[in-house]
Each structure stands twice: as structure tokens, then as C-alpha cells.
Design goal:
The complex is a heterodimer. Chain A contains no helices and 12 strands. By secondary structure, chain A is mainly β. Chain B is mainly beta. Classes of the chains: A mainly beta, B mainly beta.
Chain lengths: 116, 114
């Protein structure tokens, strides 16, 4: 079974700073997808960024970027120029490609607080 | 619709009561997923539909949990004889493809069993 570990239960930074959220995962497979989801107090999960394991280039979406280290099974999220609206729970998630699982496996989440 | 809609937003049930949670996915989305999110935890996969076919129900915690999507659109998650450990947020998500494509989540139903 695949596992996803987020070792930072909570992080707090000042507005405009850069913050990095950690995620590690465990799998013996080589083809999979990784995701970061944001969950604000409204509870609605929102996709932040997606990475395909076969792609060596790190995904980026505006202020959000990842550092994907396949050999180390690490998938960290970097948020640049953090904004108050970035305050939320952030979940790292994993799924095998090509069958074997139909649902995402999530970590326990990191509560990110952006201070004004 | 514009997004995934779940109802009710909140449900309080007495232990032993049956409950039904509804999910309206984004129109045209083939795939539909149910997740259970306990307090302070990440979501855990319950079940997956492709159109009206339930292809994976490996995450359902017991035979008290039942899900259906009879016409390939709206889905209902039913919990029979609710127990206190069933208290959680139940999230529904839909996607145009399978789980490797972007899943759009609803706001969930918070179930409290007293």
C-alpha cells in the first residue's frame, strides 16, 4: 500500500515570505501522479498543482512550484510571495497510474498560516 | 452545474439512525468519488464510480456503508445504523477522466453522530 507523509502539522510565515511544505511518499511503483490540494475553512478541496512522475521537470503554477525528487520520494511545495488568502490546510496526495487504485491517497495535511 | 454540490452541509444523527448524503457532480463528469475525512486527518478514499458502475468500493469501512449512482449523475452515500465513529466530513469529487485527472471537490457533508 502507498503512504504519504507530511511531517509539518502547522507552519506560520509572514505575508510576502516564501514557504516550503514537505511531503514524502512510499511506493515500489515507478509510474504515478502527485498532487497538492488546498483546503480552506470552507472545506472545499482545490487543486494547487499536479506532477507526473515520468516528467523530470518540476511543475509550476504562478506562485506555486514543486521540488520533485523521485529517487528520494520527496514532493515539496514552495509558495512564493505568500498572501493572506493562502492560509489553509494543504494536503499532498498520490495515485498510481495505470490502474491498481482508483482513489487518491492523502497525507494528514499541513496547516499553513500567513500572518499579516 | 458550476461545481460539485453536496447536501446537506451538516447532519446530526442519533446513533443507530440511517442517513443519506447526496452529491451532484459537475455535469458531464464521468468519474465520481467519495472520501471520508475524520477531524484533523486527510481524506480517505471510500468508493469510485465510472458513470453508473461502481468500479471500486474497497474503501467502504463496513457493510453499513452503501453508495449508488443509478443514472450516472447524482450519487447517494447511505450509512445504516450510524455509529459514533462514523462522525466525519464526507467529501464528494468528480472528474472528466479517472482519478489521475483533476478532481473537483464539493464542500462536503459534516456528519455528527450523537
Amino acid at each position: 500500500a502507498q503512504t504519504v507523509t507530511q511531517s509539518q502539522p502547522e507552519m506560520s510565515v509572514q505575508e510576502a515570505e516564501t514557504v516550503t511544505l514537505s511531503c514524502t511518499y512510499d511506493t515500489s511503483e515507478s509510474n504515478y501522479y502527485l498532487f497538492w490540494y488546498k483546503q480552506p475553512p470552507s472545506r472545499q478541496m482545490i487543486l494547487v498543482i499536479r506532477q507526473e512522475a515520468y516528467k523530470q521537470q518540476n511543475a509550476t503554477e504562478n506562485r506555486f512550484s514543486v521540488n520533485f525528487q523521485k529517487a528520494a520520494k520527496s514532493f515539496s511545495l514552495k509558495i512564493s510571495d505568500s498572501q493572506l488568502g493562502d492560509t489553509a490546510m494543504y494536503f499532498c496526495a498520490f495515485i498510481l497510474s495505470g490502474g491498481g487504485a482508483d482513489g487518491l491517497t492523502f497525507g494528514k495535511g499541513t496547516h499553513l498560516i500567513i500572518q499579516p | 452545474g458550476a461545481g460539485v454540490s453536496q447536501s446537506p452541509r451538516y447532519k446530526v444523527a442519533k446513533r443507530g439512525q440511517d442517513v443519506a448524503l447526496r452529491c451532484d457532480p459537475i455535469s458531464g463528469h464521468v468519474s465520481l468519488f467519495w472520501y471520508q475525512q475524520a477531524l484533523g486527518q486527510g481524506p480517505e478514499f471510500l468508493t469510485y464510480f465510472q458513470n453508473e458502475a461502481q468500479l471500486d468500493k474497497s474503501g467502504l469501512p463496513s457493510d453499513r456503508f452503501f453508495a449508488e449512482r443509478p443514472e450516472g449523475s447524482v450519487s447517494t452515500l447511505k450509512i445504516q445504523r450510524t455509529q459514533q465513529e462514523d462522525s466525519a466530513v464526507y467529501l464528494c469529487a468528480s472528474s472528466a477522466g479517472g482519478a489521475i485527472t483533476e478532481a473537483f471537490f464539493g464542500q462536503g457533508t459534516r456528519l455528527t453522530v450523537v
